[in-house]
What does this fold into?
Amino acid sequence: MTDLSFAPWSPSFVTDPYPAYDALRAAGRAHWFEPTRQWLVPHHEDVSALLRDRRLGRTYLHRFTHEEFGREAPPPELEPFTTLNGNGMLDLEAPAHSRIRRLVAKAFTPRTVERLEPTVERLAADLVGSLYADGGGDLLARVAEPLPVAVIAEMLGVPPADRGLLRPWSAAMTGMYELNPSADAAAKAVAASEEFSAYLGGLIAARRADPGEDLISALIAAQDDGDTLSEPEMIATCVLLLNAGHEATVNTTTIGWLTLFRHPDQLRLLHAAPGRLRDGVEEMLRYDTPLQLFERWVLDDIEVGGTVIPRGSEVALLFGSANRDPARFPDPGRFDVTRPADGNRHVTFGAGIHYCLGAPLARLELAASFGAFLRDAPGMRLVEEPAWRPNYVIRGPKELLVTW
It folds into this structure.
């Protein structure tokens, strides 16, 4: 039975879950949580190992039917969200996952990210400059949200006039990644899935007729021994790039700045030595990760710390807890921008076959954003402590009001 301090629907817990994580780690390595019927895994060593363990999976349908696995099929009213989500790499296992990732990697290459660097730097500088010129405002709405959305839109070739559609669609769909989402959240996710799929279908048709330099054109052209991506696979890939690719950047930006405001000595270090920004970004990702929990199905019985977790169970890997585990990180509750990036083995981007494909892009966006503030807009300060959104899994403040 889990300590009641783990309370993912409590506003105070969402604001600061770390004392509860300390208690969970001290109490053991696997804890049954009845409200979500999941096993919580709080230790870094176990989380890291289970992310790589093929006895677990994001889906079970490559091996079992719903009935064989003791689970009910998603209700039909969740379509097309269920199919769209299920076609994405994040929710597939080998061989389907391997095939799609191999094809996507031919289009979404390191060179793709490298080519984007001047654009990301320019967008970040423009957004930061505008906020600075106005004397302040909501950093979330003015910089943290528009930057990654603009970058993804640029990659996909979404016309500027349509880019305002992307963030609401993403927010509606990622609401389904929370624990026990409500009927209202499900309805919003379904509507967003329908609209986003239709929009991307039109964009794909246009690129088939007139290819460009964008990622959609590259996905259409990607081949591996004659194999190509189907249209549903391309749509799911684009949706995943938006949803997973920018949520982490948005929340790391706001949480990272909030952390720096609370640790002015560390902010001064970054101002004095901008070359430490790479270390600082990794420490922000570790210290207060935007993705607190990641789920896996148990495909074959496993044992964690002497507890047998049977096939058919679901585990919740607590990224936030793993990233503060003293067995892995010296003095983990200390925010230290001088902690070397190369040794900062946080699990924020996952591990194993589902390691985040967009991690290099996220790091580029974060470096550009924080770098622009440090270089072009020094002296920024927090107006007031923010309220937090009620979401626990993908976590962040509602706004971040700043001034100069």
In short: The chain is about 50% helix and 10% strand. The chain has a mean pLDDT of 95. Strands lie at 31-33, 38-41, 56-57, 136-138, 293-298, 302-304, 307-309, 314-318, 381-382, 401-403. The CA atoms of residues 128 and 373 lie 6 Å apart.
